[in-house]
User: Fold ATP-dependent Clp protease ATP-binding subunit ClpA from Streptomyces pseudovenezuelae.
Amino acid sequence: MFERFTKNARAAVQGAVEQAERSGARSVDAEHILLALLDREGSRASFALAALGVASAERKESLRLALAEARRRAGLSQAEAEALAGLGIDVSEIIARVEEVHGVGAMSGDRKGGSRGLGRRPFERGAKEVLVRALRTTLAHGDRHVGDEHLLLALTLLPGVPAEALADHGVTHESLSRVLYGEGEAKAG
Assistant:
């Protein structure tokens, strides 16, 4: 599958692995792909993010903070936390109690120093879904190669924290499609 990936898409995937390593995560997940895309410059994904107002360091940091807060909630999206609240489960209270006993970030799933085997980190289901959806998105748009913009589009299509954080910052599948495929005034080139 990776033979169909452009240089920028491969760099984004490698960046996701590096993001997971830096955070001490045992595996690569969809949020690591988003974090890697935020670090990219001079690519179609970075152009699209800039066109949608997520170019400044401040806006990118806001997205990173939203992802970090979700990690603190053990990866629950805000919508999932609200659904649990509807059932009488206060996620904030649970987090506070767990962190009181085990320390801040105890529910994040990151384990410092816990590399597996030769240091390779497996891709979790969410990251694999992003890669597969990116390939499907590429084919659906009649493109020949998977670019980093397809990874970004895939992140907006799959339910979860990355899509929610992007939408909260004005980046939706519809807005990205307008920017990337010319269904509006801005078009990536």
About this structure: Confidence is low (pLDDT under 50) at residues 110-118, 184-189.
